[in-house]
Amino acid sequence: MKRCMLLIVSNILFVFLGIGMLQAQTNMVFEEVDGLVAVEAEHFSKQKKTDKRMWYLCDPNTPSRDNEGNFSATASGNAYMEILPDTRRTHADLLIHSENFSNVPGVLAIIEYQVYFNNPGRYYVWARCWSTGPEDNGMHVGINGTWPLSGQRMQWCQGKNSWRWESKQRTREVHCGVEGQLYLDVPSKGVHTIAFSLREDGFRFDKWIMTKDPDFKRPEDAGPAERIFSGTAKTTPVSGSYRFIALEDFEDISSGVVPYYMDEARRALAINAARAWKRDEFAAASTIFYGDRNNYDIQLTTLAEFDGECTYRVLVNDKEVGVFINASVHVDDDYKPIKAVFRNVRLSAGDKITVESNTHTNGLIPEGDGTAWARGRWTELALIPSCDRSIVRAFPGRVAWSAGVNQTEKSSWLDSPWALAIFRSAGLSQRKVVYFGYNNHTGKEQSETDDGIVRGTLSKWGGYNDEILFNEIADADAAVEKLLEEIKKSTESDPLWLVATGSLETIGRAIERVNADDLRFVTLVSHSNLNLFSTAKQHNSKYTLAFLRENGVHYKKINVQDRKHSGVPAWTSSGLKRKAETFEFLKDHRDERMQWLWNCHLMSSSGEKIYYDFSDAGLAYWLVTGAFYGGDEYASPMKMYNLLDSFINGER
Fold first, then answer.
1. Which of 175-179, 253-257, 628-632 has the lowest average pLDDT?
2. What are the C-alpha distances in Å from 47 to residues 143, 193, 238?
3. How many CB atoms within 10 Å of residue 122?
4. Residue 503 and residue 510: Cα distance in Å, rounded?
């Protein structure tokens, strides 16, 4: 492979592997000549204030970072910059000041350029952008670290879904902007820093112009070319995307239980399922990553096959980071590309990345003496810098969740949906959550409602194996047996987290059937004494916290999750029990999965309950943010919402 040769010259290496790599022009200075300067947006010198939002490069080879598409084909230089993550696209989406919106310039996502001006004076600022709606069409411009009023609130209204030059300033009276008011005053001859900053996330920025001509005519094309005063392009990779082609970049394709073969017709790696001994076994292909250390979303492109639903696994240094099962498809969608995304995976140069898949038959397509088998085909793997600033952190082991319903407040009718959504959004639904019990101390009528809400959540959010679900009243004995199985699997490297948000009846019945050695690596987690004591007393049960501790269970109690900190705005303060009106925006959210979380509130309260209480789901948030390894005990509505919304925005 050429990669071995390219390792000698690091700059060439990133051209080979770094599809969509951002080349930072750290020493380039552009020049104003005859009252005009033009600069490509991707040729910036520096970024600042990137902890919440950042400018990301998009070019023809960069996998889309949002679900609105890639528009580089018509961009100047076939590249542009976009502020991500993009969590507010319509008026129905939540506006969070200093997070996804800032009417104050210089607060978030600053991108800088160096320009040598031969002629000081007043310059009118033009920029070329692509907007899709009313919430991704504004930014600010400043000079030398200052943000004058004349550079604030650059605005685009016309030319949606196309590249358009504009020079208008939004005012209180004219929201679509006034021409002639957007300018910067350059104080002297010499090098000055021109900077742009976030007003709305999702903003796409292709190129900018500064001109002394107040009557400058809007270009219909990409506009005037750049002029470089000094410096050259430095091929220093900055948080780029990488793309690995299955048939080209994976040298080792025979390290699995069975080997892959190269399906040249479909440009895929596949398993020869015609050989019976290769069926139901995993093949593996590996490559080495030589890019930037960063958190990446790993995007695997599989091929759907109508004769079976194959399983795919991605491993980093032989440790599994994600599992995906292809959906059942109609024959018309045979070989349709399906993208599986495993979010927020930490990678460093030298890491080994492995893709595994198996064969599968759904028994529906006759072939010979049996049925046809799908061959586990896949075509490429892309690494896309995680742009959600996710705080998800890895923790060892598995999660067993046991939820109840407070018979007065019916609280877990919101807790269970939010917990399932949190695990799904953090990418843990298939590889970490091994048991999800619910309805552990309710009556029949409540049982039916709780069952519908939990199964409805799985239907909406997806990503779970139905075999982990147990109604702890209707399926009591089966639930105990499943918990026993998971408890006995526990080891130092693979512990079990028993999360109790209701009665300890099911957990207690399982605990009393194992010995102390089986419990060495089992930890009970809760946040409320009500869960652990009052419910046992209410049901006259012997299964209390004391009982479990006597039998050898370790216990971790985290901060009470429904407690609001005084003096802090409700949306940002920790505590997950709020007035229902705080969450009414969910019913009009652009995504039906978020709407479902509002509908669960209506079902649990008949629309009458004052409070929206999902406090037990704060335990899920603590787990996905690291558990004992730095888990966040102070969940807030904003934190919970951002995690879910980032997952939705990050889907490919």
1. 628-632
2. 14, 12, 11
3. 12
4. 13
**Cβ neighbours around 591 below 10 Å, total:** 17
3-state secondary structure of 393: coil
Instruction: Please name the residue that has the structure tokens 């194959």.
Output: 310
* DSSP H or E segment with residue 56: strand 54-58
Distances from the Cα of 180 to the Cα of 123, 203, 217, angstroms: 10, 22, 12
173 Rama sector, left if φ>0, alpha if ψ -120 to 50, beta otherwise: alpha
Question: What does the pLDDT look like over 81-134, one tens digit per residue?
Answer: 999 888 777 766 667 788 889 999 999 999 999 999 999 999 999 999 999 888
Which pair of tokens denotes residue 245? 């082609």
| Per-position DSSP letters for 164-229, written without gaps between them | EEE-EE--SS-TT-EET--EEEE-SSEEEEEEEEESBTT-EEEEEEEES-TTPPPPSSS-SPP-EE
| Tokens 């990050």, located at residue | 650
Q: Measure the CA–CA gap between 478 and 502, rounded to whole angstroms.
A: 18
Contact criterion met (CB below 8 Å) for 57 and 206: no
Query: Which of 604, 609, 642, 501 minimizes the C-alpha distance to 562?
Result: 501
Angle ∠(205,152,72) on CA atoms, nearest 5: 5
**Which residue, among 36, 93, 83, has the nearest Cα to 201 in the 3D structure?**
83
What pLDDT score does 113 carry? Answer: 95
CB contact at 8 A, 470 and 437: yes
DSSP secondary structure string, 129-158?
A: EE-SSTTS-EEEEEETTB--GGGS-EE--S
Widest Cα–Cα separation across the chain: 88
Q: Quick one: CA dihedral 545, 548, 552, 556, positive or negative?
A: negative
Q: How far apart are CA 539 and CA 503, in angstroms?
A: 9
pLDDT digits (tens, 9 = 90+) for 540-576: 678 777 788 888 888 888 888 776 544 444 555 667 8
